[in-house]
Write a structure and sequence with these properties.
two-stranded antiparallel ribbon
């Protein structure tokens, strides 16, 4: 699940980055904000939503270890328990990182078994029926632009070689362009490729028409990182963007990719810009617009076939660095370039048009931090916005999304090392009674399987105590 992948999330690394960057590059300044005037219709009242969702990751709950979603009676018991403690919604992972789906699809293969574990043949249908029978909301999540697992050499791209041409091309520390499959892990396709977008939207529409869920949540709807996508296709589309947007007649002569990033360095095992070129910030703008336009296209096509199915997204809450994935979940009315209350060095004039909050019906944010309140740390006690704490990041998301979409703040109870169940409950309670949508708990396996969380115990009491309305 995006940056919250169960086995890959590295909270300590995130916190180290925060410390090294002075906790928050957008600390409050003496100058006043120069945002355009905000009228009452631009920011609606922020009121608690009091919904509680739990994420059900396919890999963790079906295709590994003591996955408890391989048995129908076990599933019923878990859903009953979730309902009892106050959870009223599920986010069900139905498109695996192989690019295969957990149901019979016209567009991709069904993933019946993986890693030696076999899925219930009617898993998705069963989950929908069981959720409905308990008056629980059910949203589907998909690994949007991931179509293979290069570690396992398995997935959609391996069965459909024609799609290999849309493989994301990344740049390594030496400045060399290499296929993403050579780097291991998730096999991202290029989000800018029309064929990739069409395939993905067809799967989304199929899900909506076939199951009529409450909504579909786009996870991994982004580039892998700042090192992607440097394919010939992206270059061609970027040159066209520069010519049309800026009337840049010299764009076609650029030194690609050096005119975007002239040199690279390795940070925590990943290639990051060491020195940037003249087109760097326009490149960031271009990538963010690719994703915003995809959201708009998806919404239009989804609503044409299933107007009552909501469109949602998941993103990490760390907006100050999420531009590296090309993802701008802010409102299109929020302009990060002209805002002097929060300083974002990545933005240029016009960047606000890449905001996609208005395209969504629901948004899940990963507020995956141990620090709850700003006052809990002397370095943040004087701040209002701070992307590396729960309260600070929630304030920031409220500010940049302008309440254009219900936000569900997310807690990771398995990878963040909380000191006690009470700390978990406090964080859930704050999110539940503070977010305008509610809270999202990641992941159900961390709640149900003691060895999947740092406290090594079932977390039912922590959830029940947290999900109490104030």
């Amino acid at each position: 699940m995006d940056t919250k992948n169960i086995n890959m999330l590295n909270i300590s690394a995130l916190m180290l980055v925060a410390v090294l960057s002075g906790f928050f590059q957008g600390c409050k300044k003496e100058t006043k904000t120069v945002l355009p005037p905000v009228d009452d219709e631009m920011i609606e009242t922020w009121t608690p939503g009091n919904d509680a969702f739990v994420w059900v990751d396919a890999q963790a709950n079906i295709f590994q270890g003591p996955g408890r979603f391989r048995d129908k009676e076990d599933i019923k018991l878990i859903l009953d328990s979730l309902k009892y403690v106050g959870v009223n919604g599920l986010v069900l992972d139905v498109k695996h990182n192989t690019g295969f789906t957990l149901y019979e699809s016209t567009y991709t293969q069904k993933l019946s078994s993986y890693g030696g574990y076999t899925m219930l043949p009617d898993y998705v249908e069963f989950m929908v029926n069981e959720a409905r029978s308990r008056q629980m909301k059910i949203y589907f999540s998909i690994n949007t632009f991931v179509y293979g697992n290069s570690s396992a050499n398995m997935g959609y791209v391996y069965n459909n070689p024609a799609f290999k041409q849309y493989e994301s091309i990344v740049v390594n520390a030496s400045g060399e362009r290499v296929p993403i499959s050579a780097t291991g892990g998730n096999f991202f396709l290029n989000p800018a490729a029309d064929e990739v977008q069409e395939l993905t939207i067809n799967i989304i529409k199929e899900l909506a028409a076939k199951f009529q869920p409450d909504g579909i949540v786009l996870d991994y709807c982004r580039y892998r990182g700042i090192d992607a996508d440097f394919s010939d296709l992206s270059k061609e589309l970027f040159v066209r963007f520069l010519e049309e947007k800026y009337n840049d007649s010299q764009a076609k002569f650029m030194d690609f990719p050096k005119d975007i990033v002239s040199s690279w360095k390795v940070v925590n095992g990943n290639a990051e810009p060491n020195a940037t070129g003249k087109y760097y910030k326009k490149w960031l703008y271009f990538r963010a617009k690719v994703l915003r336009d995809f959201f708009a296209r998806t919404r239009q096509e989804l609503k044409a076939v299933a107007p009552n199915v909501g469109l949602g997204a998941y993103s990490g809450a760390w907006y100050s660095s999420y531009y590296q994935q090309g993802n701008n979940y802010a409102s299109e009315t929020y302009d990060p370039f002209y805002d002097e209350e929060l300083t974002f060095s990545f933005a240029i004039p016009g960047y606000k048009e890449t905001g996609y909050a208005e395209q969504l019906d629901i948004f899940f944010s990963g507020n995956y931090y141990k620090q709850l309140y700003l006052k809990d740390n002397s370095a943040t006690a004087h701040l209002k916005y701070h992307w590396w704490s729960v309260e600070g990041s929630m304030n920031g998301i409220e500010y940049i999304t302008r309440n254009k979409v219900p936000v569900y703040s997310g807690i990771d109870v398995g990878n963040v090392v909380f000191d006690s169940e009470e700390d978990i409950s406090k964080t859930i309670r704050y999110m539940y009674n503070r977010s305008n949508g509610g809270v999202m708990i990641f992941d159900v396996c961390h709640v149900t399987v003691p060895r999947y969380n740092p406290l090594k115990k079932g977390l039912w009491d922590a959830l029940e105590n947290g999900l109490k309305k104030e």
